[in-house]
Description:
Blueprint: H1 2-40, E1 45-50, H2 52-55, H3 68-77, E2 89-94, H4 100-103, E3 107-108, E4 113-114, H5 117-123, E5 134-138, H6 156-172, E6 176-180, H7 192-212, E7 217-220, H8 225-228, H9 243-280
Parallel strand pairs: 1-2, 1-5, 5-6, 6-7
Antiparallel strand pairs: 3-4
Helix pairs in contact: 3-9, 6-7
Amino acid sequence: WGNMSLFSLWQRFWELLSVVWVWINVKFHRLAFTPRILASTKEQSIAIVGDELALGIGDYVVMFENAGISRWMYQLLRSPVSSLRLQWHVLNCGELKSSIQDWTPIIETSSSSAAGVLYQRYLSSEGQVGPARVVILLNSGLKDSPHTSPTSHMTSRQYVDCMRTLILALRRQNKVVAVCTVPYCAEGTRASLWKLWVKDVNRYIVDLVRSLEDCHVVLCRLDESQFIEDIRLFSSDPAHLSSQGYKLAATAILGSISNELKAQEWRVIKSVLSPQYEEDEPSKDD
């Protein structure tokens, strides 16, 4: 029993150390590169927002490297086999212990309404990644589920209602929005109540995207059976992905939004070439 207790303590310490390591590297990457990226290529920027899942907890990173979906998507976009032609940048905006309400543009209280603190910081018109063209919503819901957060009483329906408010606000800014279902490890009995809550959330997310009937709101399914039933794709807990899982998720998300990225590339190229086309176009008098 004493050995088991010591092992559990070491495992907790190692998990905490890996979280801190990922957080430090992402913060460095964010401070060093995000302002320069948005100043030069904002039309080809992808922002990934959400909680620890968006941040990349569970991924294996080296010093000063990005983490999670951001890291793998950046590599895929620069792969020789990529069908995209312009230089795209991926911005990691994940925040530890964040809830969906932190990202919701309008939060109603008994006396007033206000924007969530992370929406103001990142996604508002004056936010850090406000100019980004594409926004990917990726959450585990650990802070929102009443089964994993003692301070939360949010139902799965209320969670998706907040997400709907966020999606509509981003569409008013003319952004492409990719909405990801929540991945979870189907193996084992850990966090079984949270998994049931997540299944309801995923069902409501699918219904939400279909009901919006907006071609610029894209659904990314990360809860398919071949994904959630492979234990190798998850880290030591059922809510966070491993490096292999993040790579597979990045591939799936990129496949879902590739048409939108190509359309944006064409708009950028067309805007650059339009003066030349106007010069070459014959006048009506000729």
